[in-house]
Amino acid sequence: MNRSRALAAGTRGFIVAVGGDGKAARKAAPILRRFAELCGGSRAHIAILSAGSDEEDFGDRYERAFRDLGVNRVSAFNFENRTDCERARDDSLGGVDGVFLIGSDPARLAETLSATPVAQQIGRLNAKGTHVAGVSAGAAFLPRQMIVAGKSGTTPRADIVELAPGLCLIDKLVIDQHFRHQDRLGRMLMALTYNPDAIGIGLDEDTAAFIGPDQKLQVVGTGGITVVDTSRLQHSAIHPDRRHAPVSMIGLHLDILVEGNAYDMSAHLASIGH
User: Fold this and answer.
1) Which of 51, 153, 229, 236 is the most interior residue, by most CB within 10 Å?
2) Would the keyword Hydrolase turn up in this protein's UniProt record (predicted)?
3) Is 30 helix (H, G, I), strand (E, B) or coil?
4) At 54, is the pLDDT very low, low, confident or very high (cuts 50, 70, 90)?
5) What secondary structure does DSSP assign to 22-74, as a single string?
6) Which residues does residue 229 pair with via DSSP β-bridges, in sequence order?
């Protein structure tokens, strides 16, 4: 679905969660190319938005990567603190076809951008058909609630994850990045015990989930995506006096998806690409 058709239909734009490292923007070229094509190819106007990041050259790297792919109009926006986001004009992102959100520190990204006029503007744009992508911490920030910190490990425990408000583009979804590389299954499972009606998406590096307005997810990239679905969860229990103890979870459903695979988030069903 291109932007003009999305606007005509009154549907939201794609939400794209990209797992990766901002220092390796060129390795994500297939993902960036797909995002650019959604936004209009060489005629697209893409805004690269950085908020609360110490990595000042991340934006430059992605700007060069998009330009190398033939995108002629790339605008960079750097919001260093929450005051910058609150003072931004209501139309500061007006006219863009896509927003590409980068961030290196999930906690600082949430503190800087959550519930600000800039965040609200991105939400309005996406609802009207503008595509929004987030990479690394920016990917985790896309849903209503985000993982801002946590510990490695496969087993869920009450003290293994910290949550904060996200961008609120999509409900009933939790996203984590650097997933298998940094062994983050346990903190994802714990986040889902606090959000029992949500689906969890764990992104490997250089891998993206393209979530369309029809709630269907497609995988692009060289790694995998771990989908944890709690719709069939039968039991979970957190002992109130033992924060370090393992948490019981029975009835989870888990899929590992690779490029070409898809997941229907409404039907809770994975499919194999052809």
Assistant:
1) 51
2) yes
3) helix
4) low
5) GGGGGGGHHHHHHHHHHHTGGG-EEEEEEES-S-TTHHHHHHHHHHHTT--EE
6) 199, 253
> Could you give the 3-state DSSP secondary structure of residue 38?
helix
The Cα 268–Cα 274 span in angstroms is 20
| 37-52 pLDDT per residue, tens | 999 999 999 999 988 7
Q: Can you give the pTM of this predicted structure?
A: 0.91
> Can you tell me whether residue 103 is helix, strand or coil?
strand
Where helices occur in 167-215 by DSSP H, the ranges are: 185-194
Stretch (H or E) spanning 154? none
Residue 108, φ and ψ in degrees, nearest 5: -65, -35
Helix (H) or strand (E) holding 34: helix 29-39
- Model confidence at 2, pLDDT cuts 50, 70, 90, reads very low
Backbone angles phi, psi at 64, to 5 degrees: -65, -40
Distance between CA 165 and CA 46 in Å, rounded? 25
- Beta carbons of 72 and 63 less than 8 angstroms apart: no
CATH classification code of 3-264:
3.40.50.880
